[in-house]
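Technical annex, item 7. During the second reporting period the consortium partners agreed on a shared format for inverse folding records so that results from different sites could be compared directly. Each record opens with the tokenized structure and is followed by the designed sequence. A conforming record, contributed by the partner at site C, is shown below for reference.
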């Protein structure tokens, strides 16, 4: 009888210990996790305390299936809300959790429609009980609509590299058409910081242009272009004429000023050109002949 009581007590204590330890088990995040909407996840750490959190991306839709509201709920508490003014007539939410080597986690959110139409895109970090946007996916390359179509801008996290996020910013640009601009964000002083205001790469998949390849970064000037000594648009270095060949080197963004770094193959000189804020004077041909056919206007 005493032995039976002993075993019952032992089993009871074991169950209690398992329940207690289960609540305190440390989370072990993969590098990248895709989060489906209206589903609760309880295996990952987003708050940064090393413990498992309950994470849910909740949605509300109207009778036509369009999004009305989107909420981010963490451990039962609403930490971010997106109303109809933000989500527009979006149809889907793309959500991912990225974790760096140092165990710091970041939440990626994109709200959009078909045909690359994007109403919202951002990367968030949980700090001091709040979700804070650390990367603005729609407006990083200048306010959406300033250098390209208004709803044709968003970010894609290409990969996690140690304590760094490598991010492609897509824009249906007036200058280069539908293009991706790659930037690196390194974890520093408690958050993500842009490593360099100059892009790592520019890629236009329609024309197969990439600044990572010398042979695929050469384009032909379609109209006269001013080339500046610095990416500030103050001092003109030289003028490019129609028919001249240039090599695209990088993009540069600072304080809403967006420039392209180029090298004139004729002069051998490097300089900066301003990115266009409207359709070029040469119509849909663009300021570079090869890129004209890749520029598309979808009304957004």
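Designed sequence (site C submission):
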């Amino acid at each position: 009888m005493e032995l039976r009581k002993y075993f019952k007590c032992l089993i009871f204590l074991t169950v209690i210990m398992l329940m207690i330890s289960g609540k305190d088990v440390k989370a072990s995040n993969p590098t990248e996790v895709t989060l489906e909407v209206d589903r609760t996840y309880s295996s990952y750490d987003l708050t940064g305390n090393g413990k498992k959190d309950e994470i849910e991306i909740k949605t509300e839709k109207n009778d036509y299936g369009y999004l009305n509201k989107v909420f981010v709920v963490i451990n039962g508490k609403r930490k971010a809300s997106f109303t109809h003014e933000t989500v527009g007539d979006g149809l889907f939410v793309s959500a991912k959790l990225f974790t760096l080597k140092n165990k710091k986690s970041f939440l990626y959110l994109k709200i959009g429609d078909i045909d690359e139409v994007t109403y919202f895109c951002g990367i968030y970090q949980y700090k001091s009980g709040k979700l804070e946007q650390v990367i603005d996916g729609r407006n990083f390359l200048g306010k959406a609509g300033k250098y390209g179509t208004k709803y044709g801008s968003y970010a894609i996290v290409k990969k996690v590299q140690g304590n760094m996020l490598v991010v492609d910013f897509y824009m249906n640009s007036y200058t280069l058409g539908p293009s991706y601009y790659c930037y690196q964000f390194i974890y520093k002083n408690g958050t993500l910081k842009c490593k360099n205001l100059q892009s790592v790469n520019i890629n236009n998949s329609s024309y197969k242009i990439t600044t990572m390849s010398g042979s695929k970064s050469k384009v032909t000037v379609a109209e006269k272009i001013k080339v500046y000594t610095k990416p500030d648009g103050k001092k003109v270095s030289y003028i490019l004429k129609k028919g001249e060949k240039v090599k695209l080197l990088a993009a540069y963004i600072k304080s809403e000023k967006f420039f392209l770094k180029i090298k004139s193959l004729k002069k051998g000189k490097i300089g900066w050109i301003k990115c266009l804020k409207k359709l070029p004077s040469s119509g849909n041909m663009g300021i570079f002949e090869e890129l004209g056919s890749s520029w598309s206007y979808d009304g957004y």
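The helical segments are 2-24, 84-87. The chain has a mean pLDDT of 86. All partners now use this format for quarterly exchanges.
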